[in-house]
Amino acid sequence: MMAAARTNLSQSVQGVSEKARALMTRLNLYYAGVGVLALVNLYLLVQMAFAWRTVTSQDANALAQQTVVMKAAEIAKKPLEGLDGKVATATKDSNEFYGKRLPVAYSEVVAELGALTKQQGVKLSRVQYADSPVLDGTEGALTEMRMDASLNGDYRPLVLFINSLERDKMFFLIRGVTLTGQSNGMVGLRLGLTTYLRGKGPAADAKPSETAKTDGASDASSADGSVQR
After folding, report:
1. Are 115 and 221 in contact (CB under 8 A)?
2. Which member of 88, 146, 216, 220 has the lowest number of beta carbons within 10 Å of its beta carbon?
3. Are residues 112 and 205 in the same domain?
4. If we measure between CA atoms, which residue out of 123, 144, 130, 137 comes closest to residue 187?
5. Range of the domain at 162
């Protein structure tokens, strides 16, 4: 009897132990599964965080780039604002400049040089002339008139003559000034000048000779403004 009871008890204990082990095994597996799922979820959350950060950073960079592009476009368009009005104003100013400051005939230029030298008391002893077309074939066609002049006089009158050329109603561009000599208070200068004739000048207007020599300040032009031969 006792032996049978012990056997039954041992079997019962063994069955309970096996059930407990089986239960623990299932719990372990459950916890393990939960742990794995938790790790997977954590990994996904980290990846989502990185992805969100990357997208946000890219959006910020893209927004910054677009802002720069817009600012550049705004700066670029400013000179074009009111362009029609600016073109009209520039055309008007150009026409006024052409009409008031550019001569039509060669004789006008020679007469003006003669008047300025006489006014300032300097001697224009020699002038070389050369010309070439500018904007030929267009509505604003000009003739560039280049002059290489030799002058003599006191220092102050020569300075005043150069200043009068720069301020004259007729447009003169001084290309260069070279000192050629000095003796007994008299200074010699070589002066490079440029002006422009509207069109090619009247057909009847005589172009100055390639080398024109004068005798004194008043010889650069005659009394009526014609070119000296």
Report:
1. yes
2. 88
3. yes
4. 123
5. 102-220
